[in-house]
Amino acid sequence: MLTTGDMIQNRYRIVSLLGQGGMGAVYRAWDTRLNIPLALKEMTPQAGLDVNTLAQLRQQFQQEAAVLARLNHPHLVRVTDFFEEGGNTYLVMDFVEGENLADRIDRQGPLPEADVLTWAGQLLDALDYCHNQGVLHRDVKPQNVVIRPDGDAVLVDFGLVKLWDPSDPRTKTAMRGMGTPEYAPPEQYEADAGHTDPRSDVYGVGATLYHALTGQAPPTATLRIADPNRFIPLRGLMPSVQPETETAILKAMALPRSQRWQNAQEMAQALRGQTFAPARPPITPKYEKTKVLPGAQPVAQAQKKRVPGWVWAVGGLAVILLCGAALALGGITIRQTQVAATAQAQTTITAAAQAQATAIAQQVTQSTATAQARATATAQAAQATATAQAEATQATATAQARATATTEASIDVPPPEAARWPLLFLDTFGTAGNDWTLGDYSDELIEGNRSISGGKYHWQATASGGVVWWSMPDLDTLSDFYLTVEGQRISGDTDTQYGLIFRRADRDNYYIFRIRDDGDYQFRVRHEGEWNTLISWTASPLIRPGQINRLAVVAEGSNFTLYINDQYVAEYTDSKVSEGKIALVIGFDDEGDTGVFEFDNFEVHAPAATALLPLVLSDTFDADENDWRTGDYSDERITGNRSIASGKYRWEANALDGAVWWSVPDIASVSDMRLTVDVRRVSGIEDARYGVVIGRVDNDNYGFFQVKDSQFFKFSVRHEGEWDTVLAWTETSSIRPGKVNQIKIIVTGLHYAFYINDQLVGECDDGRLSRGRAGLAIELDKGDTAVFEFDNFEVRAP
């Protein structure tokens, strides 16, 4: 197990653990050579494999990793490096932020057709590229499609990827996994005769689009063969879908491969060029009221470690190296485990049907000479399926009945946008770090013990009276944030309390959000030593007595939004305490009360770590009042005009030679700071550069962070008249060509962190810049012309 700060290959520094399983772990890491974030997947050898098997798997790993590393497409996640160290195998992959398509469907239901078809074109383009490189994906499904913050779709998790060659025996499906049943074509179940080809991925795309447009996963291929009436065409579930779209998707999902689109490009062409009516009001599907929510699980499930749903570490190979010769390797998709009874019922049906899958599939293609045998096999499969369906129907009905009360008692709103703020702090309690209070404790009101073991923060307490007791990690003061934790009462009275404290300025000033296992929650503020109840103890069916409950709070200014088990429960506006620290809390009402609690997955997101710094200058360019350079300008290198109008700082430039040009307002010199500005290239070549200067002492000493719409950024330092590139031109999809891009720089001591559209794109340490002024800058090559607009320039500093 790697720990924070470990270096691998003298290049990759471990930042944090993202996920862990039986096959290994995935870490967020930092490439110290390129100064970019990445995901590092560690695969640990399975015990008991003989030397020859290990050697064979290592060779196959190297071959297939090399193929994946050569793939480079804007809608694919890249494998950028692979190596072995210390007996383990490692894959280095892009670090991607976004929301997977499955989560978006769960959150919004059926999605707008225009959005879905845009993503479809991007995914099909990526698959066409893969197929032309001789690679099949083999597991296209909503969970493996990430919608980035810029709105583009990225295909991830080559968990079942394989080299595709019709003459290669490795193309046989028996050598690989079967994919996910709802999105896998029938040939992926035929262990004795099935081959897959690009049309298999086409089926997966069709099934994924079906789910996105209707809000419902399609039945599995085996169930469709056993009972064709189970498959409802798209417009039967969502009449607003255009007929042309339905036709294209149904053809992609044809059971015989010969009837599908023969390649990804064909399907993409069929979906292009459609027009759409104005956006329609959201349609609530009929199943909305009986959707099984986390609070309605019929059986308590052992929960795995939760890692932020917006983080995706992806890549993978066809075979899990060193983890078992027959296992399929997948890049780890890091998202919250969700258990739904309807999915369990579908799994039951699938398991029953798969036993006869080969016989059923052969029914479509075998000659009439074996018709009687096929009929017998089909009848047996149909009977098994019918039995499983009956059992599943009962299980689903029971879960739906339990879910209805929860659904109707809560407001089903999307996850907070704040959950997509940059991750500031995450503790899965794998180790005893972050300065949590540990060991025995006692005073006149309470005594007990706190420890970290088994991946939990374990808290035992006995009260001598009414008491609230907290434990704080080593984390700075915060104002706005998204805070979440999983808590569970292991033993004790049901009216004992556990939850979160936040904006804790001192022991007399803080907010507290807590729940009890008798089904109530409460929100209070302690202000100047006095308690104020904002929301009295209120019953909520979302609370799961004796089970793990996930609490979350979004604080934005004076507004607080509260969540229990990912469902909105309440919000409140209060401004008594503006900032402070965050903590875990337990509470007791009476002398002699006892309780044992466990906490896990303590997670904090914030707009920026320095959001509370005092404002130095803020300019929305509604008026010309901060002494920006305006008017015509020219010298032997550049000519142009700068003006402030319509709420923008407009900059026109024509380069007579290569030139860096800046504009600095009337602003104090700062060292540590947070700078943000919005910029758009209005016209001119795509490689025209725009950005900010920082630490500017004079013409010969300053830093220049620049961006260009070809999706590259760079950071250079001019020191004593000489240029030095600190971060070389680096590609990032965070840049939106031709659109407004927000640039953010956070400087702390010698450390510089660079963000584009709230995505961390680079970090570095440099000691040559000291206190200086900040401003705007552009750079053009000889003969280039461009027009830029800047807005919302803000600098904060201690």
Comma- or semicolon-separated keywords:
Jelly Rolls; 9-stranded antiparallel beta sheet; 3 domains; single chain; 43 strands; alpha+beta; 798 residues; Transferase(Phosphotransferase), domain 1
Characterize the structure shown.
The radius of gyration is 29 Å and the shape is globular. It has eleven helices and 43 strands. It is α+β, with helices and mostly antiparallel strands and 798 residues long. Strands 14, 15, 16, 17, 19, 24, 25, 26 and 28 form a nine-stranded antiparallel beta sheet that branches. The chain folds into three domains: 96-409, Transferase(Phosphotransferase), domain 1 (Orthogonal Bundle), CATH 1.10.510; 417-605, Jelly Rolls; 615-796, Jelly Rolls (Sandwich), CATH 2.60.120. A hairpin with a 2-residue loop joins strand 20 and strand 21. Helix content is 19%, strand content 37%.
Topology:
Blueprint: E1 7-8, E2 12-21, E3 24-31, E4 36-43, H1 51-70, E5 79-85, E6 88-93, E7 95-97, E8 99-100, H2 101-108, H3 113-132, E9 135-136, E10 145-147, E11 153-155, E12 162-163, H4 198-214, H5 221-226, H6 234-237, H7 243-252, H8 264-271, E13 311-313, H9 341-354, H10 357-365, H11 371-409, E14 423-427, E15 439-442, E16 446-453, E17 456-463, E18 467-471, E19 481-492, E20 497-506, E21 509-516, E22 520-527, E23 530-539, E24 549-556, E25 559-564, E26 567-573, E27 581-588, E28 594-605, E29 615-619, E30 631-634, E31 638-645, E32 648-655, E33 659-663, E34 673-684, E35 689-698, E36 701-708, E37 712-719, E38 722-731, E39 741-748, E40 751-756, E41 759-765, E42 773-780, E43 785-796
Helix pairs in contact: 3-4, 3-8, 4-7, 9-11, 10-11
